Task: structure prediction
Amino acid sequence: MRKALLLAAALCALAPCVLATPALAQGWPERTVRLVVPYPPGGNVDGAARIVANKLQEKLGQPVVIENKAGAGGLIAGEMVAKSPPDGYTLFVGANGPILFAPEITGKHAYEWSKDFAPISTISMTPLVLQVHPSVSAKTLNEFFDLAKRDPGKLNMASPGPGTTNHLLSELLQPVAGATWTTVHYKGNAPATNDLIAGHVQFNFDQISVALPFIKDGRTRALAVTGTKRAHWIPDVPTFAELGYQDVVGQTFTALMAPAGTPEPIIAKLNAALTDILREKDVIEKFDLLGAEAAAMSPEETRKYLSAEDATWMPIVRKANIKAE
Result:
């Protein structure tokens, strides 16, 4: 009898908490929602956040503001959101590096995406392109690999920084192609691109949105794209898979994440709103101008996608012992 009374008392004590979660979700949002971006203004991730923020504001009926919190490869912003109250008012617009790699690369394991975040949806996918300076004699991907094999380490690849998708694609490709080259790390994409255009390095992997002007005016030559299909911006350039390198697929994604423990009704409401937004014609066109594709997934599909990306890239990060400089 005493045990039954104790159990009943415990259940009564928990009841307010159990009831509070549906009530919180039902009234959400009642104030400003913050989208935390792990980079300064400008660039693909910030651009993606700004495209969807105004639309979310219209659908949710409350202000949706961007908060740029750069530093430590995205770790600072990621940690801030992961440790925020799981109430739907502080969300993370992250990408490959900040979500998956930053804790490992910086050596500060401040969060683990699969435990500390609740995926809401992907937002966009941006394929990359392997481009070479015109001084490189190779006109095709296989000619490029032959060149790299003939003189291992001579070709220099411009990387915007350790652990970026650009860098990891290079690490993935070398053993697959049986070729080696030298990686030159820069502090950001702008100086890496400038040195490629100037001919100080021979090639790089870059987001199509950045590379397109240089490809079009002949300052670089595109050899292959990393997407699952040809990129309509440069339709004559084949994918790596078409050329026989099935495993060389890599895109820069952006995704909306909430702190773990955020009530499911809030996650569902955000996912439904974002899915509708990413189907709108003007939104699709805005992402197209960024060289990206609007891409919504369900929360479960987003989790599965991130798990697959984690399984592909984290072994490469660890094997290459990639650390922030």
Summary: The beta strands are 33-37, 64-68, 90-95, 117-132, 156-159, 182-185, 203-207, 221-225, 251-259, 293-294. The CA atoms of residues 216 and 234 lie 9 Å apart.
